[in-house]
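Researcher: Let's try something more involved. This one mixes different molecule types, so please make sure each is placed in the same coordinate frame as the others.
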Amino acid sequence: MSNPLPHAITESLYRDHHSWLRGWLRGRLGCSQQAADLAQDTFLRLMNNRRPLSTIGDKPRALLTHIAKGLVIDHWRKRDVERAYLDALMQLPEGEAPSPETTHLIIETLTRIDAMLWRMSARTRDIFLLAQLEGLTLEQIATQTQTPVITVRRHIHKALLACMELA
Amino acid sequence: MTVAAKEKTIHPAQLKEAADWAISLHYESPGAVHQQAFERWLNTSPAHEDAWQRAQAVFETFKQIDSNTGKTAVRNLQQNHLTRRRALELFSTAFITLSAGWIAHQQLPWQRWTAQVATRTGEQKSLALPDGSRLVLNTASAIDIIFSEHERRVRLIDGEILITTHADSAPTPRPFLVETNNGLLRALGTRFSVRQLDKSHCRLAVFEHAVELHNFTSGQKQQINAGKQIEFAAHGNTAPIPLDNSNALWEKGILLAKGMRLGDVVAELSRYRPGILRCAPEVNELLVSGSLSLVDTEASLALLEKNLPVQISRTTNYWVTVSARI
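Model: All components are placed in one shared frame. Result:
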């Protein structure tokens, strides 16, 4: 919010680019309602952009597509998270579905966790989850993965730091 | 809860120390001395406390999903990590990879060429390969394409593909191979589809000419001719059965049901939409005939509701059940 675009410029950007951006998003999402929502979000992001005006300069399309791509990826990730959660719920006995509010909260949390785990290497993530989800001690993980305890500790340290960045 | 700590810039060295302490206290069993040393560290500076709060926020976050369902969901996500990573990264890189492949094709079609392609739930993609073959990926699928001097290989990682091969233009024509978890398929000038039904189970349907199937586990080699389909797994191959020609209509976004069980129809539709779509047991055996859209599954559900004694109920938009109409 530190350096919002002057309104006149935002307005002209919106006028010139909103329509093709919506079309572009519709092509990716296959749904015009979602495309409209994400197009609005893209302009909101742009308005709150901290970068100075000059970097937008003559390439508003490139910047808008860049922002929109990030939003589409977030959108897909959220969908993956929802699917993973619902797949997990399927294993519950019929009639034990949690309330919509609970579902919403858990999906929010899962999305945050997914973002944390996303940037880790496969090995770091696997080891971290053995500790975090399965509740194994460092020694147990070392035995199970045939890795020295010191290496297990290093992986978990790395994973934890990555999580702390987003926590 | 975490906002205050988040706004502050914390020195990386202090975050590292905090992570160190968190590991000691959460994953190791600390003795009394440990605990005292930790408290001394924590009280040395407010910056330490901020860093520590940040570490605690991670544990708090995980605590919120500390149920079997939450944990299973995280595991589900990680299991699909590779496919998802590909799908998401491809979104920004596929075009470049494919155009690089295209340039190689213009020069030397038999040169080495690789690509990774994936589709999301409900998405389909059609590709023209450098040798002129055509490949369509169905919903939620992932493949590696590896073309070398000696072979044209497609590795099916997940989902379903339809391939129409083209005669190779390399000086020595290379075989066209499809690798799955359980077997290797060699195209004998042909059009066929392969679907990974689950981790250890594949279905091959041959529409034109023939495909040679080599089952990795049983070592069995078998030629499947046009008009036949077969399932293969570690324990062996099923006998080939006549092909259901409507099988490949998914490429056109259509599910053609000819006296198909409602349970099977619903299972098929659910492949094309995110969330859960279930069929109640009491209506599983109803028979369905007609053409349903795989692209617009909502319309297909509405059609089922209109023509059968069933109702569609929604717990949320992502949890839909088809049951007997009351």
